[in-house]
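Please, structure for the following, as tokens.
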Amino acid sequence: MGGKFVIQSLSVSMNAYVGPVAEKLATLNPDAEVRPFILDGDVKQMVHDAEVFLVERFPVTKEIIDSSPRLEMIYRPGAKVQNVDVPYATSRGVLVARGRTENERSGAVATAEGVLFIIMGCAKKYNQTRLSFEERKMGVPPTLELSGKTLGIIGFGSVGREVGRFAKALNMKVMGIKRTSDSELAREIDFLGGLDSIKKVLGESDFVLLSMPASKENTGMFDFNMISQMKKTSYLINIADSRLVVKEALLRAIDEGVIAGAGLDVYWDEPPDPNDPVLHNPRIFTTPHTAGLTTESYDRLSQWVAEDIQRVITGVAPRNLLNPQAVDLWQRRRREIRSG
């Protein structure tokens, strides 16, 4: 077909996949080029010759799609496609797909391990212990035991379920919130309720984990009033989506002692400003959106992504396609592009 087949990352966090995907693709197709996202760069210039976008939360609008006349696929390596104009992409014959592994539980377990690390970081007051060294103090601060504590999981899906299993192994009480009832899951934990039980879970939990996708309905759900339903000694853990939480409300709740602290793996701006107060509050334990990212998970998912891209290069639709109605138009467009 001549020239390189260009895959363009559209977020800083997706840049982590550039190297692994490029390495996997090199064994499948030496004419594929995977390019990183350039922070503060001209996005339209970046995408003008791209055939595939690797996306996370970057808004892929009509304008961005039209800026890439050779675009064939918008691809989200993770679990949920967000901020993509799927209807317009479909009308243009652009495929929209998401990645997965053959065993999705492995990804949930990896994320659950990351969650446990964040919970431990809060319980064992990691930030404060580092300050103790700076102040030449030993034996302080006292930390918390997890055994006997209660973990409330808002969004008891695949990740929540694995976190619950870890928590039970640590002799924690586990409460969950799930939109739909599930008798099998209910038997695994101490309490499983619907959204009407959220205040009960908040009021009884020592750690509240947000593990649900953001939507129009729940954006800003955790405002000051909602956070105030939590125990004063509790921690809010968010590994799902920053839009679930009102940033100013969280900072105020911590500063005023409404809750003890927080653990965050997602941020309102990514990457966050290095001077963001969230990163410098000793009662907020932070990780750089890495809860589910391990060497092993990168390897599994990068292989899957590379194989899907190679399928598109060779004219075969990717697995886990979200808009199969776009396939016919995509096939016609790719023939026109290559014949031109």
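The mean pLDDT is 92. The CA atoms of residues 67 and 77 lie 22 Å apart.
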